[in-house]
Each structure stands twice: as C-alpha cells, then as structure tokens.
Amino acid sequence: MGKSRKKVQIIILLLIVILGGYAITTQVSGSNGKPTEGSKAPNFDLLGLDGKVHTLDEYKGKALVVNFWGTWCEPCVKEMPALQAQYDKWKDKDVVIVGINAGEDKMAVENFVKQVHVSFPVMLDPEKDAIQSYGISPLPTTFFVSPNGKINKIHLGQLDLQTLDQQIEELVNS
Amino acid sequence: MMKEVIAFKNTKCECGHQNPVGTVLCEACGRPLEEQDRESNEVLEMRYDGMARRSQRANPNFIDRIWNFFSSVKIAVYMIILTLLGSMLGTIFPQENTFLNIDPSTYYKETYGTAGWIYYKLGLSHTYESWWFVLLLVMIGASLVICSLDRVLPLYKALTKQRILKHKQFLTRQRVVYQGPVELESKEWVEQASVHIKKRGYRVHTLDNALLAEKYRFSRWGPYVIHIGLIIFLLAVLARGLPGLHMDQHVAFPEGEIKHIPNTSYYLKNEKFTVEYYSEQDLPKEFQGKNKVLPKLFKTQATLYECTANCNDPSKQPTLKAVDHHNIEVNDPMDYKGLKAYQFDYDLTPVLRSVKPSLVDKKTGKDYGTFQLKIKDPERNYKVGPYSLELKEKYNDFGLDENGQPVTKTPNPNAPAFLFLIKGPNLPAEGVHYFYFPKQVDKERFQQDAINAKMNGGSVPLELDVKGMGNVDLSMSTTYLNIRVDKAMPFVWVGAAIVMLGLVLGFYWQHRRIWLRIDDGNLTLGAHTNKNWFGIRREIAAILRKMNLEVDEKSLDNGGNHS
Amino acid sequence: MSGLLNFSSNMFVVAFFLYCAAFILFAVAIMGRRWSNRDPESHRRKWGNIAFGVSSLGLVLELTYFFTRWAGGGHIPVSNMYEFMSFLSMMVMVAFTVVYLIYRKTILGLFAVPITIIIMAYAAVFPQEVQPLIPSLQSYWLKIHVTMAAAGESFFAIAFAAGFMYLLRTVNFSSTDKKDRRQQRWVEIVFFSIILVISFIITVFAFRAAGYESVFTQTKASGTAGQTTSVTQTVEYKLPPIVAPYHSKVESYQPFLGMTKPLFSAPSWMNGINAGRKFNTIIWTVISGIILYGILRLIARKPLGRAASPFLDGIDPDDLDEISYRAIAIGFPIFTLGALIFAMIWAQVAWGRFWGWDPKEVWALICWLFYSAYLHLRLSRGWQGRQSSWLSVLGFLVVMFTLVGVNLVIAGLHSYAGTN
C-alpha cells in the first residue's frame, strides 16, 4: 500500500498543478479574448476594394501594418498621407500596409480612397467581424504584425507620423 | 536505528487483537491502548473510532508535507477566510467587467480619484480574474480533493469494522453515558430493549449480553459528498474557459434586418420589438403624475437563421435557412442547440432604412417617377423617366469640417445626405449636381436649396420629393441581445446538486450509535453521534423510559465539548 | 383590491404590537422570577407559555398580512426593501418557533423576538406601496430564491441571538483581567450596534411624524467636447441636513434647533445626488445612537453587558452553544440552496450568466464562506463555546450588511426597487 499510495499522491498533485496552472494562465492573460501584444494576430476574411477576398495568411512572411479606420474619423483621415508614403517607401522591402474600413458603404470608401490618393490595399468590414476579433474600440487603431504572424505592437489613436518610419523598421527587424 | 526502537509500541490489546501502529482505541474492543489514556477519565477521542490514520506517519517526506498541508482543516479554514476577504475587496469599486466600453487605466482615477488609482494599480479592478484570487480557488480545490481522499478511506474502514461487544471503558468514556442496575435477566433485557430501539429506526446487533445499535450511517458521508460536488462545480467552471465551450457577446439588432451573429454561422432577424409600460393607474400613488416610466414588458420577436452555403466568402451573399423562432423576453431567452439569446437592452430611436422619392419638375410639378433609395449600401445608378441619376457621394451623418467641406461626422445614419449627378433632357450636358437630404429636418438645417443653387450657379429645375410617409421605410427600434453559448453549464448544475445532496445528508440526519452491555445485573450504556448531542440524549432517555428507567436527559451528559 | 391591501397593512401593524407584547411577556417570564411569590420554575413556565402563545398569534397575523398583500398586489410581496424586510422578520419568527419547539428555552424568546421587532420597524422605514414588477423580476424564481434565502438567514438570526446570550452568560463582567475586559468591551460594542439600528428607526419615524423636509438641487455639467449639457437634480432630505450634497444649492430649508443651513458640504468623492443624503442619515444615526446609548447607560448605571448578564443566570451555556450551532446547521443548507443555487439558476435564465461577481452575489458568497468556516472550525475542540458564539454574532452582522449595506451603499444590477 505504501508505494502505490505515494504514486497516487504524486499523480493527484501533478493534476492539481496542471489544472491550476491552466486556470491561472487563462484567467490572467487574454481573458477578454482580445489579442494582445505578443499573441498571434487573428485571421480576417474580407473583401477588398479590388473585388478579391483577402486573408491574413496572404501576408505571411511579410511585415504587416493593419490600420483600422473610418471616413468620419478625423485622425484616421489625417494619417492617411503618411501611411501612403510609408507604403510607397517600404513596398519592395516586404512590408505591406493594409487598411480595414469599419463598416461603411463600398461607395463611401471608394470615393474616399480616390480623393486621398491611397493605393495600398483597402478592405471592407461591413459586419465589423474583424473589428470584433481584433477587439477594436477607438478608431484609429493600428496593429504592427511581425512576419511570423505575431502582434508586435498595438497603437491606439492617431499614429505618430515622425516615429512611424522607425516603428516599421523595428517591425521588419523583429 | 534507535528511533525505530523507541517508536515501536506494543499494539497488541488485552483482548488479543493486534492493532496497527498509531491506533488509539483497540479496533476490536475499544479499549484505549496508551497507558496514560487508560488512566484518564476524559471523554474518548472518537475520531475514526480511534483507528490509525495513515497520513500521520513519522518522517514525512516532501510529498507528504505538501499532502498534509492541503489535508489540514486549519489550512482550509485559512484559505476560506482569505477568499472571503479577497472577495470583499472586489466590491469596493465596480469591477472592470461591469462596463462594456471604458478604458480602465483612466476610468478609476477620473471617477474615484487617488483611491481609484491605487485600486486600479493593485489590480483590484479585476479582483476575481487576478492570479492570486484564482490561485486561492485552485488551492481550495486542492484541499477539497486531498482532505477528502485522506479521510474517506479511514472513515470507511472504521465504520465497517465494528464489533458489538466493547470494553467497558469504551462505553463509560463516551459523551453520553448511563450506568445503573436492571431487573430483568441480561439476555431478556437486551432483547426487549432492541425492540424499542429498532422502533426508532436503528439497526440492532445483539450478542448475548451486549448490543450495538446504529442508524443513519450515510450521514457521515455528507461532507465528502459536498466536497465532490464542489470539485465538479469548480472543474465545470474551469472547463467553461476551453475554446468552443463559451461565448458571450452583445449584439444590436435593428428591427426588420437580418444580422449576422459574429463568430457563428447564425443570423438573427429582429422581426418586431415591443415594449409596454405600466399605465398611470398601475403605478403606486407616489409615482403617479411624476412622469415616471416603469417598463412592464419588453420582448423581441426573433427568427434565427442558419447559413447553409457561401458562409465564409465575403464576396458572396450567404444562403440562409430559418431554423428557430422565439419571443425573447427577460427571463425567457431563445435557446437553439445551445446558442442562447437573452433580452438585454433596447433603443427606440427610429432609424431610416430607405426612402422612395419622386423626381418632380419644380415648375410644372410633373412627376417623372419614383426610385428606391436605400440608406445603407445604396445603388449607384438610377433611371427615372428620361433622367438618369448617378450617386456620387453619400454621407451618413452630414456635417461640415473645419474647412467647410462636407464630411460625415459619425458612421450612424443620423443625418443622411446624398449627392447625385442628374443627366437628361433640358439639362446641361455635364449634368447637374443635386444634394439630397431625405430627412426634412436636415433639409432645413443644412439649407438644401441654397447648397444646390450655389453648386450649379442657379437653382435646379428638378427636385426629389418623398410624397408621404408610405414611401418611407423606418426601423422603429433596435434591440440589444446578449448572445451566449455555455456548453459546460450542465456540469455546473450537476456539481451544485451534489453539493445540496451532501448538505442535506450531512446536516439533516445524524449518525447515531448506542453500545450497551449488562454485567451482573448492571447496565452500562454509551452512545455516540457526530452532531446534535441534545437529540441523542433525548432519544436515549425515551428508550430507557420505555424500559421503565426514568432518566433526566441532562444526566446522560458525560461532559466534553459538544458539536 | 385596495381594501385587501389596507387590511393587510392593518394586520402588519397589529402583528407588530403583538410581538411587542410577547417581548414584554417573555421579560416578565424571565425577570419576574425573582419577584414572584411563586416557584421561579413554574412562574417561568407559565409566563413563558403565555408569551409563546402571543408570539405565535403575532406570527399568524403576520402571515395573514403576507398572504393578503400577495392577493391584493398581484405578486408575492418580496420584491422591494419593505416587503423583503417584513418577510425576513416573519421568517425569523418562524425559525424562532421551530427552535423553541425543539429546545423549549423561554429565554430565547427574550432575545429572538426583539430581532423580529427591529427588522419589522426597519422595514417600515421604506416606501410601502405595492410597486409593479419590472420585467427582470417577473419570474417564479423570485418566489423561490428570495423566500429561501430569507428562510436561511432567519436561522442565522436565531444563532445570533443564542450566541449573544452565550456571551452575556459566560463573559466575566466583574473581572478586570485584560482578556475579560476585551470581551466586555466587544459585548458592549454589539449592544451599541443594535442601539444604532434602533435609534436610526426612531429618528426616521420621529422626523417623518413631524413631516420634515428640506430640498437641495445639484447641477452637473456633462457631455462630450463641444457639447455640454447641464442636468439639474433634486433631492429631498427627510432628516435635518447637517451635511449638504456635494456642490449643491439649498432650495428650501426647514430650520431645526436653531440650525438654518447645512453645517458642511459632502466631500467631492461623494458626488452622487443621493450620496450626501445618505451620509447625512449616517451622521444622524450615530448622533442619536450615542444619545440613546447614553440614556440607557444612565438608567442601568453600568455597562449594558453587565446589566443584562444576571438575567441569564441559571442557563446552561452548553445549551445555548448547542442552540446556536443547531440553528446554523439547519439554516446553512437552506441558505446555500436559496441564496446561492437558486440565485444562480435565476441569474442564468434572466441574464445569461449564472455568476457575474455582482456585489450582492459576492456578499452572499462571503456569508456562505463565513458560515462554512464556522462549521469547519467547530470540528476543532478549542472553537466550541466562546469562539463559536462570537462567530455567530459576527456572521449575522455580515448577513445584515449583505441585505442592507450592499443595497444602499454599493450599486449594481441587484438593488431593490424603491430604496430611496
């Protein structure tokens, strides 16, 4: 009885440690289900202005800057030229800038994009699916995603145009 | 070597039975084994009926130490109290999870000042999700498992190995004792007594001049049933966190629209939303005349659809099939295959869905025809009579920015505006630009005619006019439903039910045992129960009275603290 | 319909006076033992039986109040603070009746009946009108959860009475030993807490009878950048304002004892419109409590604990300990079922989540954990008797905070209707 008792004790204690560890880690990190810096970027499945469906996997291996925006949001509009400039600069260096519009009509988005001369890929999220899975609350929000698919940085609010260049460089090197 | 010699005790009892090391009372006759114990007159330690308990061994190794830690009742009480105190802290300020849309890093400081800031920094704004709180619960869970395992087996062994004839000292040192002469011959007395004792629900075993009566043994398992229930409950709560077993989101459903429920293949249509209020007469006098509005009922008539094809392709329209219909009210959610929709909130602001304006000649009043203009995702090109209208721009919530340029202020269709390019007979070749506000208030507020005149260097000969409310499609309300999936719930309820069973078994019945023996016309009786000594004293007094022995209940009390 | 409701209110009042009579009769039964020329034991038994009869009659009338109000109001009367507290007082009488019938201890009546009386009087402080149920309360779970929770809590009230009696019986009031002095002091604090509740009720009723009212308005600016809206709210004080709401203006002020304006304003972190009024009520409660305590001390000419202790002579403290434990043992499963499990089921059905860490839910859990600790501690020899009694006293205070404090102080989904 002695030896088997010890075995039983160890098994039970191990189970407790495993379950306990699981309980604590799931509660403490990402209990909201919202993605955080360091976690994997959620997938999206959206129709682009080019008429094609785009997913996150398309951009695997490239550094990705995902900018969530809307035409009514002043800071979003203000940062568009800077984003476009960065897109042009880093285009050939495996960096993609992608804009996801939060729930507006195709026409409004198309007109806007034409007006502001944006050529980087823009996608529509009419059901706000991506907005939800990325846990977006205020607009604009920008996600910097490393080539391996992990979220490097989440920026809430208007981008700091001066450091944007630096941030992208960091992203490429991460 | 010396340690083992000293630890070796003679565990063979006078009666001949060989007891395991650590036994307090002989397993056979109940006589105390220790010399000191035999000489004392104190009430016996009846835990496990004096049997040896394995976990109290000498030289505990590391595993044993952890085991004993979680097995101890004292530690369990500490953990319960710490959980209690920790829970209190979480009620000082509202927790983060009570809000749908705030930024915790600023909210607490702004609303509650320094105290709020400290609260947030210490992590107390999400007390119940913090690592130390969950750790406490895990430790309580560990204690539940280990303390039960440690005690159930010895208890089972102690209760199943009972002998009828016990040593006199075992009887006289119980907490309920009676000693006195009897008139009948011992066997006869025992037989008669057992009849009366059986009538009270006891299971009686006799052996010549001795008797053992026992009832409600199952009550001893009560605490362990409670613990098992709690363990299942905690595990079920933990399982809720596993992916796929849990969902909780709040979704707005404007009336009349089929809306997708995110992260599922389901769509829900709010067919109609109604809210009823208590009439003035129904309100108590104090509330009447104060314009107090008390809702009586709100319900959403909802239809649930499931997507059967083209579900994940954003470029195509999904095919839907209706699968369920329910009138969702508070306390009455929709429940389809585990997907539940609860009535959460509502908004009665009407939202414009579409209008059917007519294209009218301003001078002659001639009506060229109507077209359907959807507010959300409108068509680009329309043909009305000989005219073509091309939608150039659309604003959901019209306003002017700091440079006087038209922009949309919010994504909500509060003040929709459309810019058309109209081409056709009697119009310039490049067409006229026409700004159109479907809502009359906006037309006036933004001076639609003035804008159009300015744009075209003169007034426009045509106008769009919605003739009558019949050509306006409004969504009268928006209902907010809480969509939930919780597949682990049945286990939560099972755990809770088992806890209740254990509580009832353990507290509403008590395990009672009576031993008696007659030696030379003298009756010695001892009794034991795990709870409610008052009750067993009363019962024994009643039994003895049936045997013509008048006893005062209090006199049966042999001292010792009561439980 | 309203005839039935009037009748039910009358039943409530008559039951209240019957309980007061029962209390006096229990006092006669216990304290009159010395002065009666009869054998003290038969004196106690005779008057004890009469007192129990009166209290049982009161219970019957209170049940009548309950069922006639149910019939007249259309829903079970447990949905607002007044109704719930009345129901709780009724359940305390039920629990007392059960425990009395088991143990037949007359003196239990002397301590249990006042609890019922105080709770009934406290209930009457709140608005009494039958209020129609908002949708979330329209469920049969209302009947089951609330009534069972009250039933469990009423047994905890009896355990409190028995525990307090144990302390009065066993604390050595004539000793000057440091440990004993500490026990004496804590007993006195328990007395003072009970007096606070009584004086709160007396104060509220005194000013209500005088028809006192002062009114304040508070204007708050709110809104987003660019668009500010100001909202003006009014609050009516039913007690003379010593403290005004934060940042408010006097609209009308009835002078009291030469006070013509508030003495000070509530601090900025108490910025709700009602926070100042509640703070004012607390200040008044403390002041009147101190006055009432002072008067009682003057009459008794010694600390209240020492004055009350002799009445418990002759009682076996073990019996009191037993009663206290047994009451908790009976009440704990009922409380678990009613206050926790049925609450979870109802929450799941109404709000979609069986547990949300709402303050009321958390405090119900705290009560449960507390009594769970009590039951575990009783397994250990040293905790029976004195320590147990302190725990049963403290436990009931935790229960009362859950019922009263959480509703009035901490906000949440769970607050009752009509708690102004």
Automatic annotation (TrEMBL), chain A:
Which GO molecular function annotations are given, in alphabetical order? antioxidant activity; oxidoreductase activity
Please state every residue range assigned to the domain named Thioredoxin.
35-173
Q: Which CDD domains match?
A: TlpA_like_family
Location of the protein in the cell: Cell envelope
From its record, what is one biological process in GO terms? cytochrome complex assembly
Where's it mainly located? Answer: other
Would you say which domain of life the source belongs to? Bacteria
What are the GO cellular component annotations?
cell envelope
What keywords is this UniProt entry annotated with? Cytochrome c-type biogenesis, Disulfide bond, Redox-active center, Signal-anchor, Transmembrane
Q: Which PANTHER family match?
A: THIOL:DISULFIDE INTERCHANGE PROTEIN DSBE (PTHR42852)
Please report the name of this protein according to its UniProt entry: Alkyl hydroperoxide reductase
Q: Which organism is it from?
A: Paenibacillus rhizosphaerae
